[in-house]
Amino acid sequence: MNEIAQVHFCDVTVEGERWPVIGWTIATSGGTVLVDTGMVESTPQLDADWSPVIFDWDIPNVAAVVNTHLHFDHCGGNRRYAGLPTYVQRRELESARAPAYLEEWVRFPGDSYVELDGDAELFDGVSVLSTPGHSAGHQAVVVHNADGLVVLGGDVTYSMRELIDGATDSIRRIHDLRPAQVYLAHHERPWAPEYD
Q1: Topology (CATH level 3) of domain 3-183
Q2: How confident is the model at residue 66 (pLDDT cuts 50, 70, 90)?
Q3: Which of 79, 140, 142, 162 could be disulfide-bonded to 167 (CB atoms 3.0-4.6 Å)?
């Protein structure tokens, strides 16, 4: 099982260029796992800095949430899933403080974070890989499915070139897995490496 589907939550503007903000659903035997929650609203400051365009999205029957990290464009919808287990690295949750983070989108009534310390198996065929760099507690999600091993890389890098080149220690950890596909949160199409 472990079927993966993309969710296009919103777009943000970065240096005059519009970037998609992508998350994913994983259909597991225990229900739908939602990786990141995008944005469901904005603030005047975010409007001024990022010009977000928020899409109407609703993911039914979510059993658990995994946040790659807690920046506003990746955890803004967590409040929709208050009470559900939400997996995040302990270091990321501890670091999620203003002004670098929008704290009210991280900490809210009913939040139910499950704090992880490094790599961890979450569900059958679904695990997380500690990939710090973009943020202190960034994590990628590793999924075993019919396509082979797929990595949902979040913001391990913004750059497909850096991903392909293995530009950081965290990216090289992903390379070491020899995945069939690697997705990034701001690219609609994955990297599909070829191996000798």
Answers
A1: Metallo-beta-lactamase; Chain A (3.60.15)
A2: very high
A3: 162
